Each structure stands twice: as structure tokens, then as C-alpha cells.
Amino acid sequence: MNSLKSRICSHFPSIVRFPERELKELMVFLDSYYDEWEIVKNDKATGLPKTYKDGTVKKRYIRPSISKLKILQGRIKINILEKIGLPSNVHGGVKKKNNITNAKKHQGNKYVLTTDLQEFFPSVKSTIVHQTFIDLGFNKQFAFYITRFVTWKGELPQGASTSTHIANIVFLKIDNQLITFCEQYNITYTRFVDDLTFSSQQDFQHVISDILEIVKSCGFKLSMRKTKYSGNQIITGIKVFNHKIDAPEKIIEKVEIEKQLPDEIPKYLTLYRERILKTNKRRSK
What is the 3-state secondary structure (H, E, C) of the chain? Predict the structure, then answer.
């Protein structure tokens, strides 16, 4: 953020290298610069569509930007969003970090709490995005432009290149509250987009309600079905043990199948598991 201080009051078109005339045209015809389709959410255990209490099928709407808007969002991401510092606990949408680095942080901890934010991107409304950038020190015109070009239909569009970065920035307030709280109880906290993980060598069940309340107090909803407290669970798709991490059994089984394939066929899961296991090797002194 400090690197942007001198440019906060600058001309937004200059920062993203877009003529103001083109920006105004984009705003008028914004709907035509998004593609959109829906995906039915299926239950991993049954394979059947998930439903709400009233029986309505749960769907996820994918809304990638196209053409000039896609280019503009790319420049917003590089020239503005990536320059806003994030705490070290954030692993989603951050260079050189991923689900593996996220899980690795919890290796060796006996007690683990995992939870999931419901409808994370749709929960980040345009009003929240605008206020977040005002709170960060951007002027109103700057906040208006950013909000207009990174939200659609009043929320973050899933599929746009800027959405994960925006979500991370909006969640900064909660991240900082959780970090401060967890430091008091020697709890390790990480977040991979909408997956929150907490772990410790000591039992911290007595403060779980406080942790969850911090998240809910800012308007985000948690999936209580996916909220688990135990020492033996998969963290962001990674099996975490006391002295190592590894891929879950279903991945390992598919790796064994890949071994039987001809050499010319790419073995993506094998490479993925190798990346995981590589973190377990001790660095040479």
C-alpha cells in the first residue's frame, strides 16, 4: 500500500493505461464484456445436486470477463491490487503460495479446526468493495473506478482475474483480527481463499466459538457442515501428519494408475504429488 500512497490521487486512467473515453464506454456496455454460465453444485459424498432448505438446487455462476474488460482487469490486478500487502497467513491468490504451502503451516499440530466461508465471492458486495478502498486511503473517484470494473451485478464475479485479490483485500480486516486473537493462544491461522484453518499443539476448543464469531461479526457466513475440529483431517486437499504432508489416498491411487501410462502422456497428478513430497525433504546446510 505504501508504494501507492503517492499515486492515490492520480488519474486512474493513467495508472491502468486506458483512455478515459474507453473507460466510460466500458461502463456503459459493461454487461457485454462478461460471459456467464451456471454449474450445479453436487454433493461429493452422494454425487447428487445440493439443495437449499426449500428444495431449490444450489448453483454456482461463473462470470469471466472478456475482451477489453479482461485486459483492464489484468492491469488493475498488476498495477494496483498486487501492490497492496497481505498478511503472511494468506495463501490463495498469492504468488509462490498455494494449497500446499497453506497445509504445510499446520504440520505437526495436534489440534486442527477447519471451516469454510459460504458463497464467498457473492458475499463480497460492491458497496463493501468501495468502502474497503476508501478505508485503505484511496480517494472516492479511485474507489469508484475500481469497484465499477471488478464487480458485476453488485458482487464479485467468480471467474474474473481480479476477484480473488479483491476478496483477499476485503477480508484483510477479519484476517488481522483473527491473527491478533490467535497469537494470544498460540494458534496457527491460515486462509486459502474461502478455506480457513486453525491449529495448535494445545487443545483450543474453548475458544472456537470466539474464532467463529469474529468471522460472522463482519457479515460472512460459515458452513457449519464443513466446520470440523480434530487432529486428523485433510487441509486444503492435503493430508497433514506430524512429520510430513502428503496427497490424500484418492490422489495416490490415481498416481499409481498414471505409472502404467505411456511416457509421452503427461502425468499431472504424479507431478503434483512430487511437489507435495518435496516439502518434506530437509534442506541441506
Answer: CHHHHHHCCCCHHHHHCCCHHHHHHHHHCHHHHECCEEEECECCCCCCECECCCCCECEEEECCECHHHHHHHHHHHHHCHHHCCCCCCECCCCCCCCHHHHHHCCCCCCEEEEEEECCHHHHCEHHHHHHHHHHCCCCHHHHHHHHHHHCECCECCECECCHHHHHHHHCHHHHHHHHHHHHHCCCEEEEECCEEEEEECCCCHHHHHHHHHHHHCCCCCECHHHCEEECCCEECCEEECCCCEECCHHHHHHHHHHCCCCCCCCCHHHHHHHHHHHCCCCCCC
